[in-house]
Amino acid sequence: MDSVIKVEELTKRFGNFTAVDHISFSVQRGEIFGFLGANGAGKTTAMRMLCGLSRPTSGRGMVAGYDIETQYEDIKNNIGYMSQRFSLYEDLKVWENIRLFGGIYGVDEKEIKHRTDELLAELHFEKERNAYVKSLPLGWKQKLAFSVAIFHRPSIVFLDEPTGGVDPATRRQFWEMIYAAAEQGITIFVTTHYMDEAEYCNRVSIMVDGRIDALDTPRRLKSEFGATTMDEVFRALARHAGRKE
Amino acid sequence: MARMGFLLEKEFKQFIRNALLPKLVIMFPILVMLIMPWVATMEVKNVAVTVVDNDRTQLSHRLVDKIAASGYFDMQPLVAGYRAGEQDISTGRADIVIEIPQGMERNIESGQNVALQISANAVDGMKGGIGSNYLVSIINDFVAELGADRGDETAPAGALSVLYLYNPTLNYRFFMIPALMIILVITIGGFLPALNIVSEKEIGTIEQINVSPVRKWEFILAKLIPYWIMGVVIFSLALLLAYWIYGLAPAGSLLTIYAAAVLFTIVMSGVGLIVSNYSSTMQQSMFIMFFFAVLFILMCGLFTPVASMPAWAQVIASLLPPRYFIEILRSVYLKGSGIAELYEQFLFLAGFAVLFSVGAVLSYQKRG
């Protein structure tokens, strides 16, 4: 298996504050990689550097075969991204958002139409095709945002707390979508708060105070920490955290 | 290039669907052109005058009638005695009090000197100063008439005659309307773009754009083009209204005016987007934009001539794009100048247009 993300000693400082502190890890193609950590542990900052949204202070990283320091615009052709804040255009209709982002990533008109029909059918959103995005319930918006993030068939998709504020049933459906995407060969890089979701991942890393304190499969982490759930593993690690939420 | 099409489509849809903006773009020029030319005037009219006539003769009545007939003054009821006149000023009923001395007619008949007293309220310096000047010139005219009546050749009858070029009726409105058109482009063409990118930052949608392979110039150009169109629409509306309502048509060519208007619209939308790029909240961008608007409106010669500013201020004024636009607009409207006479101003405007458009692209950062 080859790695699609490879990071060495990646660091980000804001003034005196070190948000991400020399982290190193790699993610294999097709993996569902869980990026865990308390609020303020540095997950989002690290993810933003990988996506070319934030400049690293030091360290190296390769994403989809491109250097995050110099080739960050090339990375963007090969990744999808779903931010913590919902970021589709609320004043555009469902189909218009799909069309816009498809077009931005260079999918041609005919293909956009074809894939839009397919996507709306899969989501059972046919009736909402002409609805303004602002009128959709949050869970639906999240599902739509995820579908838009992988619409251009990227090799990696970055999901920043994609299920925040969503009910358990919708979260369940959301993870089914993630699995379906992974089956198509898309590497999933996902941050989450929910420890039950961590169990769904192939491997998880746990960030504490800007560093990665643990990285392994959920099963091995649990046995290493003598825990029965990921929640216990997480608490054992987070106990030593200096940063408060 | 295909990407630009998708982005433009998005910008236009968002604009049309906004509850307020399309209405604003139509209503704003109409209101400004309907109301402002009547109020933004330096002409002094309706100066309230109280006459204290201590003479009460045929001659003093003739003087009062002459003042009233000039049309500049709003005649207040006669009062008895200077004290009462002063009272009128302090209560705000009068701006100027003119006191005609007792025995004026008699003294003039006998060839003696006569002194009239004019007291003006100078709290509003412009009104007091110009009002009393008008009054003095009317009285001088009156004196000349009297001299002519008596066949006195020595009296200074109409010593000076002025012929005004280009704006022969000295209609202040014709001077102000081009300025108002510029204010329209500054406000709509500058403020709307200033709000645009920063609002995408506040909502969070800009992240989704920044993480995509969209090129900086594509994104910025897709933002700019709708404002260029809007600027030209607003300007055309103002142009038509100036013609329909005030009968003001440019003495020169429309093409020259449009060339300048397009350049200036590009300048203003560039300024707006640069401000938007550097701001992280709408409050910030509004505040910065307001500063520029005040600077532009007060320093570029819209209301006060640049030539009468101190030297250092003239240097600043020469760095302000609207200064060149106002020169072009007034010259074409009133003098009928063409591009040949105004090439220097056009060169500056074009330079600013390139500078600010490039600045708008460069100041947009996809990666923080």
Describe the protein.
The complex is a heterodimer of chains A (245) and B (368). Chain A is an alpha/beta fold. Chain A has a single domain, classed as Rossmann fold (3-Layer(aba) Sandwich), CATH 3.40.50. In chain A, 36% of the residues lie in helices and 27% in strands. Chain A has helices spanning 43-50, 72-78, 94-104, 109-123, 138-149, 168-183, 195-198, 218-224, 230-238; strands at 3-14, 17-28, 32-37, 58-63, 66-67, 79-82, 156-160, 187-192, 203-208, 211-216. In chain A, the strands form 2 sheets. Chain A has a 6-stranded mixed beta sheet, sandwiched between helices. Chain A has a 4-stranded antiparallel beta sheet with strand order 2-1-4-5, with helices on one face. The longest helix of chain A has 16 residues, at 168-183. Chain A is globular, with a radius of gyration of 18 Å. By secondary structure, chain B is mainly α. Chain B contains 14 helices and 4 strands. Chain B has a 4-stranded mixed beta sheet with strand order 2-1-3-4, sandwiched between helices. The model of chain B is unreliable at 155-161 (pLDDT under 50). The interface between A and B is medium-sized, with 29 and 26 residues.
Strand content of chain B: 5-15%
Q: Which stretches of chain B are poorly predicted, pLDDT < 50 over at least 5 residues?
A: 155-161
**Topology order of chain A in helix (H) and strand (E) letters:** EEEHEEHEHHHEHEHEEHH
CATH superfamily of chain A: P-loop containing nucleotide triphosphate hydrolases
Based on secondary structure, the structural category of chain B is: mainly alpha
Query: In oligomeric terms, what are we looking at?
Result: heterodimer
**Average pLDDT rating of chain B:** 87
- Measured as a percent range, the helix fraction of chain B is 55-70%
Q: Report the biggest beta sheet of chain B as strand number plus sense, adding barrel if it closes.
A: 4 strands, mixed
CATH class of chain A: Alpha Beta
Alpha carbon gyration radius of chain B:
28 Å
Query: Which sequence of strands runs across the widest sheet of chain B?
Result: 2-1-3-4
